[in-house]
Amino acid sequence: MNNNMIKYGVIGIAGILAPIVFANFQVQLGFLWLMILFALTWDTQGGQMGYNSFGNILFFGLGMYVCATVQIGLVYDVGEYTAAAGLNSGKLNGEQYLTGLALGMGAAAVVGVVVAALIGSGILGLRGHYFAIGTLGLGIAFGEIFAGWDYVGAGSGLAPPPFPDELDFLGGRNLFFYYIFFALAVAAFFTLKKLYASRFGLAINAIRDDEDKAEAMGLRTVRYKTISWCVSAFFLALAGGPLGMLVGFIDPRETAFAGVTFGIWMVLMAILGGKGTIWGPVIGAAIFHVTQEFFWSFLLGWQRVAMGVLIVVIVVFFPRGIMGWLRDTWPDRFGETVDQEGGAS
Question: DSSP class of residue 69?
Fold first, then answer.
């Protein structure tokens, strides 16, 4: 058994046991895996491909609404349900809830990938600041569209069906959704790790290093950029539905298309850990989330000021992230080696 297998095994066991050992922090631990998912999926464009997207949150918000409406629509008329704010429409039994969640997450993934493919073929032709501003506008636009759409509750938001009491044998709502986020983050990590080690990874790294030369060599850059966006959209859309149900209320601007929080945090977490690496986003997300929870617990009233200071510190003092600092300090241990004179065989 090699060191990687031991490392993954330890992390996997810790992930399985953590919500049981720390039962009072199941929601916070679930959000930790969600933050890791955010950072990993953003780094697919921002780190591996060099395209700083501020619009990835739109896939998360789409997934949240699609999943909720599919689950509701299996039993009720969605328009009537949202008109009553979900208060007069009854509840779902355990079978209906689980079936609706599974179908809703599947539909969300399909919608997210389709939207990413349709939009990506156009907006991914932009470069640099134009691309960043364009994606930022997309996230804002989708938030405003759903805030004005009466069918899904408009600005009043949408209350997903509550977690049925008969499913408490699964450990309760918090533990149930914790393991969903844990599974999604693990699946995203190993999927992206495998993709980065393939020809796909070489292609998006070539785009990051010099897109013009990559095109001159015959690389279909727009196709690879679109596929990369679709991969991110797939995992973000899958995660959207469970979060809406865990929180219990979907606000179009503050929860679903929360660009000023989730949309910015996914960028900062990847930068903090180190862009363009597989472990950087994981480390950055873990440190960022723990620090944020500390601020909200012990600096109540000043937590936003503290978060602003943290953002400045990340951008100014960690431009290459923690993994970049580790590579500079111990290059032989973290993947960068320098040939010694006469040492090459």
Answer: H
Q: Which one-letter amino acid corresponds to residue 242? A: P
Count of H-run helices and E-run strands, the chain? 13, 0
How far apart (Å, rounded) are the C-alpha atoms in residues 160 and 85? Answer: 9
The one-letter amino acid code at 143 reads G
Compute how many other C-beta atoms are within 10 angstroms of the C-beta atom of residue 341: 5
Long-range contacts of range 2-7, CB-CB < 8 Å, 24 or more positions apart? none
Measure the CA–CA gap between 288 and 28, rounded to whole angstroms: 13
CB 97 within 8 A of CB 164: yes
DSSP string, 124-158: TT--HHHHHHHHHHHHHHHHHHHHT-GGGTGGG-B
Secondary structure of the chain: what % helix, strand, coil (to 5)? 75, 0, 25
pLDDT in tens, 66-117: 999 999 999 888 888 887 665 555 688 889 999 999 999 999 999 999 999 9
Residues 316, 94: Cα–Cα separation, whole Å: 50
SS (H, E, C) 277-290: CCCHHHHHHHHHHH
Among 307, 304, 275, 302, CA closest to 288: 307
Residue 86 backbone zone (phi > 0: left; psi -120 to 50: alpha; other: beta) = left
In whole angstroms, what is the distance from residue 259 CA to residue 304 CA?
16
The Cα–Cα gap between 242 and 180 comes to: 8
DSSP notation for 288-303: HHHHHHHHHHHSTTTH
The 10s digit of each residue's pLDDT in 187-242 is: 999 999 999 999 999 999 999 988 888 888 888 888 899 999 999 999 999 999 99
- Check: CB of residue 282 under 8 Å from CB of residue 189: yes
Read off the tokens for 309.
Answer: 């200071």
